Amino acid sequence: MNHFEPPMHWADHEDIAMALYEKFGDDFTEAKIYRIRFTELIEWILALDNFDGTREQSTEGHLEQIQAKWVYEWRDNQ
């Protein structure tokens, strides 16, 4: 965990999406991002540096928002 940045939680959709984009870059296009299974997405989020949350705290709503923000982040970098 990076002690210089505040921890991310499930409601930090944009921060999580930015971290996922930084981690995966252009490996995932818009179509691929929307095809990611939530079970996989949860694992990737839980593995992020500075993420401070549990699997039990995740909701479908959070995961949908994170996917959407990840797509926006990907688009912004094209």
UniProtKB/TrEMBL annotation:
Gene3D superfamilies attached to this UniProt entry: IscX-like
Superkingdom of the source species: Bacteria
One Pfam family matching this protein: Fe-S_assembly
Name the record gives this protein: FeS assembly protein IscX
Species of provenance: Hymenobacter artigasi
